[in-house]
Amino acid sequence: MPAALMPADDRVTSILLWIIDDFLELNGRHKALRAGYGMGELGADSFDMVELQARIEEELHILIETEISVDVTFDQLLKLVRQAIDAQPGRLAPRH
């Protein structure tokens, strides 16, 4: 697992961290979330992932084309979210 912490200085990363923290009830532990952490390692199961994907799409007003699995890492999820945002310009302020 990579040792680097995810940069929280851009809006998309910050929002995604907040959504995951709130949805999985991490109580602020998202601040130590590392890029390679899988959602399963954070306590999510396959049903949670369906609901989490819907929450991310609703909060960010995007559509993620692929089904997100419990094995997805935070950095992979962030990449999927960024791709969905890029596919729908004007939905969210540009990232840094």
TrEMBL record:
SUPFAM superfamilies named in the record: ACP-like (SSF47336)
Native organism taxonomy: Bacteria, Pseudomonadati, Pseudomonadota, Gammaproteobacteria, Pseudomonadales
Name of the featured protein: Phosphopantetheine-binding protein
InterPro entries, per database record: ACP-like_sf (IPR036736)
Species assigned in the record: Pseudomonas sichuanensis
